[in-house]
Amino acid sequence: MCQLVQKATGIATTIKQLRGHEDRAKRLLISYAYRSFDCTDPEAMLLTVFDVIAALASFRYQQAVGDAYKPYWHGQTDQGKDPQRLFDKGLDPEDPHQHQGVMQIYLNRFYEYQASFEGTIESHYAWMRYQTAMLHAFQSALELNDIAAVSMALSALNYVCVLNAKDFVIEHLSGDR
After folding, report:
1. CA distance 104 to 98
2. What mean pLDDT do residues 26-35 have?
C-alpha cells in the first residue's frame, strides 16, 4: 500500500504515515460512497483498491506538501489553518459533522487521484475549471446586492448553462467534435 501511495503522490511514504490516515481515509470513502451512490451502508461493496489508494494519497499529499486552509465563520474565533486538524474535528463521534470547506479539499484531491488512475485527468481539470467559473459567476451575481438583480442574474446564468449544455450534447451526438 505504501508503494502505491508513494507512486501516486511522488512522496516517500511509510506504513506509520499511512496508519495515521486510516480513519480519515475511511471517513472520506464513506462520504464519497454516499455522495456518489447514495449509499449509507458502510458494509456495501462499492469501492475499489484505486479508491482506497486515492483516499490515502489525498491525506498523505496534504500531510507532506498540501495547502493551508483558513476557514472563516462569522462570530467564531480563529479555526487554524491546518486542514487535517480541522478534518480530525469531524471524526468526533459526538459531533461527526465535517466542515464543508475541509471536506471539499480532500474530496477534490481524491477525485483528482481517481481521474489520474482512470486516465481521465483532462476531463477532471475541465470539470474543475467549470466549477471555478460557476463559483465566480455566483459571486458576481451576489455582489449585485439587490434581490431582483441577483434573481435575474442567476436565472440568466441558468439559461446560459442549459443552452450551452444543449449545444454541447448536439455537437457531441452529431460527431462534430
Report:
1. 10
2. 83
Q: In the structure grid, which three cell numbers stand for residue 84, read together?
A: 487535517
Cβ partners under 8 Å of residue 68, min gap 6: 81, 82, 83
What phi, psi does 89 have (nearest 5°)?
A: -60, -35
Asked if 32 contacts 107 with a C-beta cutoff of 8 angstroms, the reply is yes
Mean pLDDT of 69-77: 75
User: What pLDDT sits at residue 115?
Assistant: 94
Cell of 69: 486552509
Residue type, 78: D
3-state secondary structure at position 40: coil
Which amino acid makes up residue 68? A
Cα angle for residues 68, 133, 146 (degrees, 5° grid): 100
State the sign of the Cα–Cα–Cα–Cα dihedral 141, 163, 123, 32. Answer: positive
CA nearest neighbour of 57 among 89, 17, 93: 17
Predicted structure pTM score: 0.77
Burial code (b: 16+ CB inside 10 Å, e: under 16) for 40-61 equals eeeeeeebeeebbbbbbbbbbb
DSSP 26: H
How confident is residue 119, by pLDDT bands cut at 50, 70 and 90? Answer: very high
- Return the DSSP state at 177: -
